[in-house]
Write a structure and sequence with these properties.
Layout lengths: L5 E2 L9 E3 L23 H4 L5 H8 L4 E3 L2 H7 L7 E3 L1 H7 L4 E6 L10 H13 L4 E6 L3 H12 L3 E7 H6 L1 H9 L3 E5 L5 H9 L7 H12 L5 E3 L6 H7 L1 H12 L6 E5 L4 H15 L6 E7 L4 H4 L1 E6 L8 E6 L21 H8 L4 E5 L1 H15 L5 H20 L4 E6 L7 H8 L10 H9 L9
Parallel strand pairs: 5-15, 6-7, 6-9, 7-8, 10-11, 10-15, 11-14
Antiparallel strand pairs: 1-4, 2-3, 4-5, 12-13
GO cellular component, one term: cytoplasm
Organism: Polynucleobacter cosmopolitanus
Cofactor: pyridoxal 5'-phosphate
Length: 456
């Protein structure tokens, strides 16, 4: 009898609550600071940008936060998401390891991002907000918030990083199909965008700049709020439906994870898969090795400094303690646009400092090679971002082969690459170079980190 490939949960088994890792951490997350006073920010400081319910989730230390019924109803369009045993990949690698992947590409937007886009749109609409501004890199987040905004009757304006705007026109078309407006960042629509373009008309953009533009407009109007697709605590919270489901599906397979792998840019899909496993370990259960995989050209966890920094380039946001390459750092234009962010989520950075996760980095070429191997074995073409998790899982499987160990490896295949085929075409044509960041620019960006009292 052949071994099972798909592990599917019924809708009735979908998580009813999100998991908040802050309830279980041995040491509290450092506070978010107001850049003017260097004092911890309060709800009123965040109210111009976010609805109060999301602000409360941002600071909550409750372990389980109930998923509202209207959000659950929309989740059912794609959740529970499937988990697969990668039999063919195991065979191709000749590994004794068992490889499982959670596939988030089944969502309407083709990635994990609607897991937080839907609740964010719901809470904003509930508070009477009419318009959302946001940023996007590769376009997975922009697509998702456009989808969610349309469901709840919100106008959505997306600032897409210029290099991704040019690389991925079909992502833009999907955003427009959902009713959003998408503009290239830096743009002429904001004071900060015009300032950046005046200094460098051909600026490729960065997530930090796009965030600045979106925040600038949201802060000017009472009927407009800002939505963020990664980094913040409430975003990571919403993504934990992924890991909660995965734990249930591994029980169906009668195995426990030895290694959990996720790609990291801002930290949302990684936290989504990893945090429920870490929480289980912190509460006395099995603690698997947790491996974060990031791009070598934007290595915030492996090369960044753990320090207070701004989340955006114009310095309009509060200060958070995170692994950062410096808020003025502009990563090279490699194709995993969703991973090209100067900082790592404060919670992901914190668990790294606590020694609960490991981090590694790979080049663009290595990750695309892994993605092609996976596609030829398993049939799904991963997004460039997800290729980093594929690469990390393959490396773990090859380690098991060398050591003769039959470990269980689980990774988050956080999105498909159907809108990223230009990148694959360039890879096959030998035109996809391993972009290197500028060491001098990195040093300059890190030298400009804000000065914060040493007791914080």
């Amino acid at each position: 009898m052949s071994e099972r490939t798909k592990y599917l949960l019924d809708e009735s088994q979908m998580p009813k609550s999100w998991y908040n890792i802050q309830a279980d951490l041995p040491k509290a997350l450092p506070p978010v600071l107001h850049p003017g006073t260097m004092q911890p920010v309060g709800p009123d400081d965040l109210a111009p940008l976010f609805p109060m319910e999301l602000i409360l989730q941002e600071v909550s230390t409750e372990r389980d936060i109930e998923i509202p019924q209207p959000v659950q109803d929309i989740y059912k369009l794609w959740r529970p998401a499937p988990m697969y045993r990668a039999h063919r990949l195991e065979k191709a690698l000749g590994t004794p390891a068992k490889i499982f992947y959670k596939y988030e590409g089944v969502s309407p937007a083709g990635s994990h991002k609607p897991n937080t886009a839907v609740p964010q749109a719901f809470y904003n609409a509930q508070e009477g907000v009419k318009k959302l501004t946001t940023e996007t890199g590769a376009g997975q987040w922009g697509t998702s918030i456009s989808f969610a905004g349309n469901i709840f009757g919100l106008e959505v304006l997306v600032f897409q990083v210029r290099v991704s705007y040019d690389q991925k026109p079909y992502r833009r078309a999907v955003m427009e199909t959902y009713g959003a407006r998408c503009v290239a960042s830096p743009s002429q629509e904001t004071v900060y965008g015009r300032q950046v373009l005046a200094e460098r008309p051909d600026h490729p953009g960065s997530l930090g700049i796009a965030i600045s533009e979106a925040v600038e407009l949201a802060a000017q109007r009472d009927d407009t709020k800002y939505a963020l697709g990664s980094v913040l605590n409430h975003v990571l919270l919403h993504q934990t439906v992924t890991g909660i489901e995965t734990i249930q599906q591994l029980e169906m397979a009668d195995v426990q994870a030895d290694v959990v792998v996720g790609c990291t840019g801002g930290g949302s899909n990684f936290a989504g898969i990893a945090f429920p496993f870490i929480g289980q370990g912190l509460r006395g259960g099995k603690m698997p090795r947790i491996v974060a995989v990031e791009p070598a050209a934007c290595p915030s966890l492996t090369r960044g400094k753990y320090a207070y920094d701004f989340g955006d380039t114009a310095h309009l946001t509060p200060l958070t303690k995170m692994h950062t390459l410096g808020s003025t750092f502009t990563p090279p234009g490699f194709h995993a646009g969703g991973l090209r962010y100067h900082g790592m989520a404060p919670l992901v950075s914190h668990v790294k400092e606590l020694g609960l996760i490991e981090a590694t980095s790979y080049t663009q070429g290595e990750c695309f090679a892994a993605g092609v191997l996976f596609a030829r074995a398993e049939g799904i073409v991963p997004a460039p971002e997800a290729n980093h998790a594929v690469k990390g899982a393959i490396e773990e499987a090859l380690r098991c082969k060398r050591e003769g160990r039959s470990e269980t490896i689980v990774f988050n295949l956080c999105g498909h690459g159907h809108f990223d085929m230009v990148a694959y075409q360039k890879y096959f044509a030998g035109e996809l170079t391993d972009e290197q960041y500028d060491e001098k620019e990195l040093a300059m960006a890190l030298s400009g980190l804000p000065s914060v009292p040493s007791n914080l």
